[in-house]
């Protein structure tokens, strides 16, 4: 299951309608964790700020592979899960 955002959403300056915290780990929560570690809400905000159409993901897992922070340094992520159980409740899920 891929975590995809349409190109249309990434172009417009879309703001989330609501937010809640993750209750349990999933592929989507894993990718949100990676975006939030790098200083973004989610894939939508990352694409808006960095003006990119795609995010580099691991083909095996679909998890985000590499993100560029706002200060232009890079975060590199493993193929495996990085969001530990104790971190799951900190991940914010934005609803558009």
UniProtKB/TrEMBL annotation:
This is Meiosis expressed 1. Essential for spermiogenesis. Pfam families: Meiosis_expr. Belongs to the MEIG1 family. GO terms for cellular component: nucleus.
């Amino acid at each position: 299951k891929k975590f995809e955002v349409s190109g249309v959403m990434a172009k417009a300056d879309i703001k989330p309608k609501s937010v809640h915290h993750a209750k349990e780990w999933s592929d989507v929560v894993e990718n949100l964790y990676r975006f939030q570690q790098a200083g973004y809400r989610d894939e939508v905000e990352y694409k808006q700020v960095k003006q990119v159409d795609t995010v580099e993901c691991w083909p095996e897992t679909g998890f985000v592979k590499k993100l560029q922070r706002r200060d232009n340094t890079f975060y590199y992520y493993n193929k495996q899960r990085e969001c530990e159980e104790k971190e799951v409740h900190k991940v914010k899920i934005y609803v558009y």
